[in-house]
Design a protein that fits this description.
By secondary structure, the protein is mainly beta. The protein is about 15% helix and about 35% strand.
Length: about 160
């Protein structure tokens, strides 16, 4: 169910919207394969009419199930927008779309949540990535460049007869 407000109700007083919005309504799971919505969006919003626009202020909270881009470990990231605000014009080119005097806040909430997504989700800032197995000493080739200090990968490439 989208986050709808009736503009006629704003003519006399401000509205308070508190509750949860299912993650599926935000359509966020297709944005990044490393990030999925783990809980409903919690919102606590104050909606006011200011002359020819609607001012929405409040907080948004959402838990994301992420996968570390370095080590592929699953972890949760809490997204909190404590001082979120949005000014929606009622006239002009950028006016909010209305249907039966109702405006849908969902696209505006979705946009700011997507912008707050972690760009490179890390389980911890000091994550060093996937741990490789025990390392063995590089094999020395009998080629002419082996004594030149080339790594084993280059030495193996030098053996190729192309």
């Amino acid at each position: 169910m989208p986050l709808l407000i009736n503009i006629r109700h704003l003519e006399h007083k401000a509205l308070t919207l508190r509750g949860q919005l299912p993650g599926a309504d935000l359509d966020l799971n297709c944005i990044d394969e490393m990030i999925r919505v783990a809980s409903p969006l919690e919102h606590d919003l104050l909606v006011q009419r200011h002359e020819r626009s609607i001012l929405v202020q409040g907080s948004l909270r959402l838990t994301l199930a992420c996968e570390c881009v370095r080590c592929l470990k699953a972890f949760e990231h809490r997204l909190e927008l404590d001082e979120w605000s949005c000014l929606l014009p009622l006239e002009g080119e950028d006016k909010v779309l209305t249907s039966n005097d109702c405006a849908d806040l969902t696209p505006y909430v979705r946009e700011d949540i997507v912008l707050a997504f972690p760009q490179h989700p890390l389980c911890a800032p000091e994550c060093r990535g996937l741990q490789s197995g025990p390392r063995s000493e590089p094999k020395q080739s009998s080629g002419a460049h082996a004594s030149g200090g080339l790594s084993s990968a280059w030495a193996e490439l030098n053996k190729l007869k192309l």
